[in-house]
Specification:
About 55% of the residues lie in helices and about 15% in strands. With about 525 residues, it is an alpha/beta fold. The strands form two sheets. Strands 7-6-5-8-9-11-10 form a seven-stranded mixed sheet, with helices on both faces. Strand 1 and strand 2 form a beta hairpin. Helix 1 runs antiparallel to helix 5 and helix 16 crosses helix 17. The longest helix is centred in the N-terminal third of the chain and has 37 residues. The chain is elongated. About 45% of the residues are buried.
Length: about 525
């Protein structure tokens, strides 16, 4: 212990307390290290999407910088606890404020990715220093063989606790912003405990400076945690130009509801989901054209409808215009979005309280693909009102496997319809979706219309022989109360201009090769989206 402390401990009690402090440091270091990695990657994915890319990059940068830190630790000599305490203080500062810094940088686009890289490398480097330093310090209490075994096992145990707690507890209860600050405090507890236990034996005038720095940073992080809601509100208001009615981080995404005069807008992870100034155009097109074919195929009797996604309740609002529909099953992944659509007075007004006022509506919380795998029932109409294929998680909902599952849940004369992104802004993604649907169903018919807040927006309807029926024989009238759609418009919605027509030879999108994902990204990148 001569390399680590100027005055070694005397007695079993002092030795045991030293070991307990160091064991806590090892376990907590492992816990915080994984949490920081997950927080940084999750924050970037919230803002930019593409979880596979950014989790892979984060892991790669993190491991490389850990290796660099571990390698450079061999050059550290003298009283190693000095180095460890300084590393913990800096790590608590950087790790605690990593998420708030990324939020701040997001408002300055050019800074966001460079800061992400710097934070990942810094955190990884400091964590890379921790393990060898702790191992060398513990070597003064036991053999190197035993010290390495203790350090690695405790470090890995802390990592296990972190990976379990992060999705099950931290994100649902605290969100990423508060979680980062909270674990900054946890990390600072290592430095504070080390100073408390070993400070009097380090014999250095710098200990006072370390204590001042440790407590100052702890108080700063604590203040950030205390005023987290105020900080988040201020940040949200700087990003969204309209008045914010509601904001929260759910287990899956950031949800923001804004209002400006009569225009209510819902954003998920910063992406606009609807604007009440024109959402009726989208939802009327999504629901009423396929419903016309469903009624043509099944002239009498009750109808059963499945809505996948659509947790805002707008598609269900349109479906409730049909008295023939006996049951509407809505499946959405995010329970918090459903709760917002059911309880928020502005959203309830926009969706006509569709999720709570009618006993025909049954809500299931869960994954759309998993629900289809259950094959719980056959439906006359399946409406896929799902997020765009902007990430690997959502691209699978535009795959051949997904559409095969949808077909297996359709009644013999049933109709399937999905939103299919913009044939103008993401032309190849739209026609890839059409090609994939056409590979599964006997008939697939693409159509589109202008939704001003989105631009030209497309859909694909699919089914059997009923879709071969001439349009004018099917679309004769729509339910009363529609705000945009007229029967006379229908023919034009199935026509595509030369600049948005099918370029051909695009192939299909599968789970293994989600071609729709790259084509979607390429399309929106071209337009600066």
């Amino acid at each position: 212990m001569q390399n680590n402390l100027e005055h070694a401990p005397h007695g079993d009690a002092a030795r045991s307390l030293d070991l307990a402090t160091l064991v806590y440091a090892v376990f907590t270091a492992g816990l915080c290290s994984i949490i920081y990695e997950l927080l940084i990657a999750t924050t970037v994915v919230y803002f930019l999407g593409d979880s596979v890319r950014y989790f892979s990059l984060t892991i790669g940068l993190y491991m490389a910088s850990m290796g660099a830190g571990a390698y450079l630790s061999k050059y550290m000599q003298g009283v190693l606890l000095h180095k460890l305490i300084v590393a913990e203080i800096i790590l608590g500062l950087v790790g605690g404020f990593c998420v708030p810094l990324l939020y701040l940088a997001f408002t300055y686009e050019a800074l966001f990715l460079p800061l992400y890289v710097v934070l990942t490398l810094t955190v990884g480097f400091l964590i890379g220093l921790e393990v060898p330093l702790l191992t060398r310090i513990l070597e003064g209490y036991d053999s190197l063989r035993v010290s390495i075994a203790h350090v690695l096992s405790l470090d890995y145990l802390g990592a296990l606790v972190a990976t379990v707690a992060f999705p099950l507890l931290l994100l649902p209860l605290f969100g990423i912003f508060r979680s980062g600050l909270f674990f900054g405090l946890v990390n600072m507890s290592i430095a504070v405990l080390l100073l408390w236990r070993f400070g009097s034996r380090l014999g250095s005038h710098r200990i006072k400076s370390y204590r001042l720095a440790a407590w100052s940073i702890t108080l700063a992080i604590g203040a950030g945690l205390l005023f987290a809601q105020v900080l988040l509100q201020a940040w949200n208001q700087s990003v969204y130009r309209d008045r914010i009615l509601h904001t929260e981080h759910t287990a899956y995404q950031e949800v923001v509801l804004t209002k400006r005069r009569d225009d209510l807008r819902l954003y998920l992870n910063g992406a606009l989901q609807f604007s009440t100034s024109d959402e009726f155009r989208y939802h009327e097109a999504l629901v009423h054209l396929p419903m016309a074919y469903v009624q043509a195929a099944k002239a009498r009797g009750p109808l059963s409808v499945l809505v996948l996604g659509g947790g805002d309740g707008m598609a269900v609002r349109e479906l409730l215009r049909y008295n023939r529909i006996e049951r509407i099953t809505l499946v959405d992944l995010d329970e918090r979005v459903l709760k917002l659509a059911t309880e928020n007075p502005y959203l309830r007004q926009a969706n006509a309280a569709s999720l709570s006022r009618d006993e025909r509506v049954k809500i299931r919380v869960g994954d759309a693909m998993r629900f289809l795998q259950e094959r719980a029932a056959l439906f006359d109409l399946i409406v896929a009102d799902l997020p765009d294929p902007s990430s690997t998680e959502t691209a699978r909902l535009y795959s051949r496997a997904f559409y095969r599952l949808a077909r297996s849940n359709l009644a013999p004369a049933g109709v399937f319809v999905t939103q299919a992104t913009s044939p103008f802004h993401a032309r190849e993604a739209f026609w890839t979706t059409h090609a994939t649907v056409a590979d599964v169903f006997a008939q697939a018919r693409p159509y589109h219309l202008l939704v001003p807040s989105f631009g030209d927006w497309g859909f694909v309807m699919a089914g059997g022989a009923v879709l071969q029926t001439p349009l004018e024989q099917v679309v004769k009238d729509f339910p009363p109360g529609l705000r945009h759609l007229r029967p006379a418009m229908a023919t034009g919605m199935f026509m595509f201009g030369k600049d948005v027509e099918d370029p051909g030879q695009l192939g299909i999108s599968t789970l293994d090769q989600p071609q729709v994902l790259e084509r979607y990204r390429a399309g929106w990148r071209h337009w600066g989206g």
